[in-house]
């Protein structure tokens, strides 16, 4: 994130960056971009700190078209408590901004609901042998292991949990970072029946223009979108284009000028019914509303990956 932002910030013609793809990249990148007056709109960066009231002036240029994990963590805690009937959990993170902060938020909410967090464990994204941490967790006898971590480590955790005595009846809940065909491939047969918490991307919960968008997308690419955050990305681009139309000026020679400050203010003032739902930023750059859901993988064949089918929505 830092490397990419430094490269982009050195180009005086850049006034808007859409991305990056995750909180770990956006956290160091956004301040570098804003130092040059570049507005940054992210469609998949959900760490609470990025749009927190105390985030600091260095993040004034950052906004996002995805909900905060403040809401995701609260929803995950509710699901573990009310649906999975968990009284105790162990949270697992990988040190990333996304996983660590989401684990903290979920644990805090779970405790507030009367549950008990037995421990919070850390793994590395590159760890291969998860038996030591899984054995430690098994000794604590939690009702649920909550692990909002990324594909490689999560697949190792899931597969190896089947080999550790004491975890036979322990539920496991993953995070939205696992909504990918690669996770099915990496997990193998263990993926069947596995649940992940993810924003609701059902057609009936999206914006009014979403069905027409999907139909047009299929015409062009001969398949439905394979990323869960495609609508959020489209909305980020629409925010940018709408703001450009409001502030761009053309001189008598046909040169186009876009004032960075005017553009930033226009982006944060944009309100519209996006593909993902209503879009409109608060003063801290939170521009989208949260819609909770939980999905279940029903097949271990990566070729069957299709959001809504495999995995299918099982809650609410």
Cα shape: globular
Distance between the termini: 35 Å
Strand order of the largest sheet: 5-4-6-7-8-13-14
Overall average residue pLDDT: 96
How would you spell out the order of helices and strands?
Answer: HEHEEHEHEHEHEHEHHEEHEEEE
Q: Radius of gyration in whole Å, from Cα?
A: 21 Å
What is the strand tally?
A: 14
Give the uncertain stretches in residue-range form. Answer: none
Number of helices: 10
Could you tell me the strand content as a percent range?
15-25%
Q: Report the structural category.
A: alpha/beta
Write the layout of secondary structure elements.
Blueprint: H1 2-9, E1 16-18, H2 23-35, E2 39-42, E3 62-64, H3 69-83, E4 88-93, H4 97-112, E5 116-122, H5 131-140, E6 144-147, H6 151-161, E7 171-174, H7 181-187, E8 195-197, H8 210-221, H9 230-247, E9 249-250, E10 256-257, H10 260-269, E11 271-273, E12 278-280, E13 294-296, E14 312-315
Parallel strand pairs: 1-2, 2-3, 4-5, 4-6, 6-7, 7-8
Antiparallel strand pairs: 8-13, 9-10, 11-12, 13-14
Helix pairs in contact: 1-2, 3-4, 6-7, 9-10
Brief sketch in words of this structure:
The protein has 316 residues and is of the alpha/beta class. It contains 10 helices and 14 strands.
Structural description of this entry:
With about 325 residues, this protein is α/β, with parallel strands linked by helices. It has ten helices and 14 strands. It has a seven-stranded mixed sheet with strand order 5-4-6-7-8-13-14, with helices on both faces. The chain has a three-stranded parallel sheet with strand order 1-2-3, sandwiched between helices. A two-stranded antiparallel sheet has the order 9-10. Helix 7 links the parallel strand 7 and strand 8. Helix 9 crosses helix 10. The radius of gyration is 21 Å and the shape is globular. The mean pLDDT is about 95.
């Amino acid at each position: 994130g830092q490397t990419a932002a430094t490269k982009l910030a050195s180009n005086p013609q850049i006034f808007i960056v859409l991305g990056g793809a995750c909180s770990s990249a956006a956290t160091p990148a956004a301040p570098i971009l804003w130092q040059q007056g570049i507005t940054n709109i992210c469609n998949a960066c959900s760490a609470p700190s990025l749009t927190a009231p105390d985030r600091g002036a260095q993040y004034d240029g950052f906004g996002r078209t995805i909900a905060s994990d403040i809401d995701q963590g609260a929803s995950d805690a509710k699901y573990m408590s009310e649906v999975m009937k968990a009284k105790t959990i162990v949270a697992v993170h990988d040190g990333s901004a996304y996983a660590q902060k989401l684990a903290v938020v979920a644990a805090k909410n779970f405790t507030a609901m009367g549950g008990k967090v037995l421990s919070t464990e850390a793994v590395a994204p590159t760890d291969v042998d998860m038996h030591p941490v899984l054995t430690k967790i098994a000794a604590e006898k939690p009702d649920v292991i909550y692990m909002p971590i990324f594909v490689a480590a999560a697949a190792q955790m899931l597969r190896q949990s089947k080999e550790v005595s004491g975890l036979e009846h322990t539920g496991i809940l993953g995070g939205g970072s696992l909504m990918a065909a690669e996770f099915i491939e990496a997990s193998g047969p263990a993926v069947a029946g596995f649940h992940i918490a993810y924003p609701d991307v059902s057609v009936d919960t999206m914006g009014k223009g979403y069905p027409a968008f999907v139909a047009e997308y299929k015409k062009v690419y001969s398949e439905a979108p394979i990323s869960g955050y495609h609508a959020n990305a489209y909305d980020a681009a629409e925010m940018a284009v709408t703001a450009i139309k409001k502030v761009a000026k053309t001189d008598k020679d046909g040169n186009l000028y876009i004032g960075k400050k005017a553009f930033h203010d226009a982006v944060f003032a944009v309100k519209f019914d996006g593909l993902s739902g209503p879009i409109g930023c608060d003063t801290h750059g939170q521009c989208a509303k949260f819609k909770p859901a939980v999905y279940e993988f029903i097949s271990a064949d990566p070729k069957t990956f299709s959001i809504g089918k495999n995995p299918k929505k099982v809650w609410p």
